[in-house]
Design brief:
The C terminus is likely disordered. The chain starts with 6 loop residues before the first helix and ends in a 10-residue tail after the last strand. It has about 290 residues and is α/β, with parallel strands linked by helices. It contains 12 helices and 6 strands.
Length: about 290
Amino acid sequence: MRTYLECVPCFLRQALSAARMVTDDPAVHEEVVRETLRLTVTMPFDRSPPWMGQQIHRLLREATGNGDPYAEVKRRSNDLALALYDTLQGHVRGSADLFVTAVSLAIAGNVIDFGCRNRLDSEDVHRAIEDALNDPVNEVACDELRQAVEDAGDILYLADNAGEIVFDRLLLEQLPKDRVTLVVRGGPVINDATWADVKSIGLDSLVAVMDNGDDTPGTIIESCSPAFKARFEQCDLVIAKGQGNYETLGGGDPRVFFLLKVKCPVIARDIGCKVGEMVVRRNTTQAQRVVT
């Protein structure tokens, strides 16, 4: 997905919010915002928003000297989600359709997103869970995903955020675990999940795990490691979580299914849904809407 004009204010909001979360130093806040403005002036709008997110958060890490500014946020997110896990697993096991419920709850976990917010609100998480249980995802789309899983010999599951990966476990438990590889970011960016986050919740004992070799808050294939590129090329199915993966992988490869909670009006227009909706969507080749 290309970058739209509406994305520019969001870049600045994210840059300033992230800088203020990491440090109280106003000089650092100003440096990050000024550098973000400079990058925005020159960035090609045919690049996806996560490309710019990568630049912003590299700036933040350099300006603060902190290699993983969101480490504590990620730890708290994982702790919050782990405290809910037994209850969530009970909802799945007690449901009429385990797969649909697991998909719905996995998407509900996508609310834990510090690219769109600057604080963790447990009330928002509980509300997302309640919404997922009361109004689950479209069953037709979910059945299409279910069939794709049954047909696939090699499945890549592209994770999004820390905390959210606990919710992902509910869905991973419904998949053929010997055919699934969980993919995390190759380096810290925002609150996106990395190897350290997966190990901290023991998810690496459930399925195979690899990183993509890149610190983009999405999946830009050409920026990823040769090992990930090879796996992506040969796999039969990709389950891609979150808006960042939609923004970087949308518009082409039908092996990709997107699972996300829509938090941005630009993405809502692009998909053709409302902000707040839970989406299961197979990748398509349809032209992206042009919004100015």
